[in-house]
Specification:
- The longest helix has 18 residues, at about 90-110.
- It is globular and about 35 Å long.
- It starts with 15 loop residues before the first helix and ends with a helix.
- A two-stranded antiparallel sheet has the order 1-2.
- It has six helices and two strands, in the order αββααααα.
- It has one domain (about 10-130).
- α2 (about 55-60) packs across α3 (about 65-80) and α3 (about 65-80) runs parallel beside α6 (about 115-130).
- By secondary structure, it is mostly helical.
- Helix content is about 60%, strand content about 5%.
């Protein structure tokens, strides 16, 4: 299956229309491969190696359009808060993967407040989604 890697994906081509196409391709490809299930307007993530996830992270942190960055960040949050029970049982592994990806983008520009805020929102959403209820 053809998919554009994050290294070949030209961010200068990215606007809301091309991001919408990317997101549709992401959802459809991963659904066909069984990595997520689409149910109406919601999804359930069933695999931990989604095709195009590195590109999605790259878009969320490096897209030239702030609106596209926000949409991609929201989509990352949705993905990480939509795991099936099997993935929830491996929460530690998923947490490590999420933290590794987040830190990779923080290391590139550790003093960028917008980047730090984006990372913290993603991590906070994940923590809130999977914290045990009291």
């Amino acid at each position: 299956m053809f998919f554009i890697s994050k290294d070949k994906f030209k961010l200068e081509w990215l606007n809301r229309i091309t991001y919408t196409c990317f997101k549709s391709l992401f959802l459809r490809s991963n659904s066909l491969l069984g990595y997520l299930q689409l149910k109406g307007n919601s999804m359930i993530v069933t695999g931990d190696s989604l095709i195009g996830s590195a590109t999605l992270w790259n878009v969320a942190f490096n897209a030239p359009d702030m609106g596209v960055k926000e949409e991609a960040t929201g989509f990352l949050i949705e993905i990480y808060s939509s795991m099936n029970d099997s993935l929830k049982e491996r929460l530690r592994d998923v947490s490590v993967s999420l933290a590794t990806s987040a830190l990779q983008y923080l290391e590139k520009r550790p003093t960028d407040p917008e980047r730090l805020d984006r990372i913290l929102r993603i991590l906070q959403s994940f923590i809130v989604s999977y914290s045990p209820t009291r």
